[in-house]
Every structure is written in C-alpha cells, then in structure tokens.
Amino acid sequence: MSIKAKIDKLRETVPAEVKIVAVSKFHPADMIREAYDDGQRIFGESRVQELVEKYEMLPADIEWHFIGNLQRNKVKNLAPFVSLIHSLDSDKLMREIEKHASANNRKIPCLLQIHIADEDTKSGFSPDECRQFLAGGTWRQHTHVQLAGVMGMATFTDDEGKIRREFRLLKSLFDEFKERYFLNDPAFREISMGMSDDFRIAVEEGSTMIRVGTLIFGTR
Ligand SMILES: *Cc1c(COP(=O)(O)O)cnc(C)c1O
After folding, report:
1. Is residue 195 within 6 Å of ligand 1 at its C-beta?
2. Domains of the chain
3. 21 has which bridge partners?
4. Of 5, 10, 167, 178, which alpha carbon lies 20 to 30 A from 196's?
C-alpha cells in the first residue's frame, strides 16, 4: 500500500477532530513529501538535527512537532520554527524554551510529558512531579511557553487492559490540571496519546492527537 493509501485509511479510522501527527523520524524527505502531497501537514520528529535538516528542505507550511527527549543545548535550533514540543518535563527545560522563544518573539506551545508506563525511562514527569510543577507556579512567569496539554506513552505490551488503564490515567491527569489551572485557557486542550499499535485504544480513551509512524511510513 502507498503512503497516501495508508494515510487515507488512517483518516477514515479516527474521528475527524483527532489530529494525526505523522512520525517521520529516520525516514527520508521524499517520503514526507508524498504524505504532504496527500494533504498531511503535521509531522513529528525525535532528533533535533534531523528535524532542522528536514525543515530546511520541505515546504514552509508544515507544522513540525518535536516528540523526543529534548536536550537543553539544542532548544535554540528548534525555537525559530517548531509548532509543538511534546516533551516538556522539567523546570530547567521550560526555562531554556522560554529564553529562546522570547529571543525569537514567539510563544511556543508545549505538552507536559508524563510517565504513565511501567517501563524505566528518564523522560517524563511522574504524575506527582507534574502536580508539583504546576503547583509551584513558576510556569506562570514563562510567558513565551504556552502549556497546551499532556503527552504520554503506554507500556509496550499485548495487554490491552493495561494500555487502557495507562491512557485513562493520562486523561484523568489532563482533566485534573484543566480543572485546577486552565479552566479559562482554551489553549490547554491536547491529550497526545496513541501510536501505531495502540492508537485505537487511545482514541477510545480521549486522545486528541495521535503520533503514528510505522503504520504510515513502514518500519524504521
Ligand atoms: C517513534 C515514536 C512514535 C511513533 O511510533 P510508531 O510505533 O512508529 O507509530 C510516537 N511517539 C513517540 C514519542 C515516538 O518516539
């Protein structure tokens, strides 16, 4: 099946209001172009260098999302153009994004990445760390960082019940934060969850944005 056919099929599967981030990491620019020619405009990348190179080669109306672990010393390379950073998970990273967003006269939308899986990983707040981050309130002074929702990854497992419980936890954290801090802020609205293997469950559990790579572009 062509990239175009795979995207069309995916679009038929998910509700129209759920945004599809086409995860193009490790795939060449001509494959992105094929998806672009089918009307796809949101692409996700997980390495800064690769993202910058593709940004320079491809049409200017693409919305580039950064979905990987973000090193602070690389924020400056993304700041001029990135549309959404899915991986905000510390005060230090927020300060760095603030600095470079401000220097570029931009307000950069960011999602709070929360660690909902069982797997060991360094990235993402724990639910309690995220609560403390928001309660601390320093984010209010970072006016060039737009908190736009939450992001999480479920455990890599065949156990659908487990995946569903993890997505449910992320949705409930979103609801908690929305209620407590963002009721009057329409920009805080995204729940980025669901990948090639689990996006159906994620959509059932309230995802507003799925990040799909393999299903569109094939294996990496
Ligand atoms: C690679 C990646 C994806 C896409 O995964 P697929 O299984 O290829 O759909 C989604 N989210 C993140 C954070 C990723 O790193």
Report:
1. yes
2. 3-217 (3.20.20.10)
3. 211
4. 178
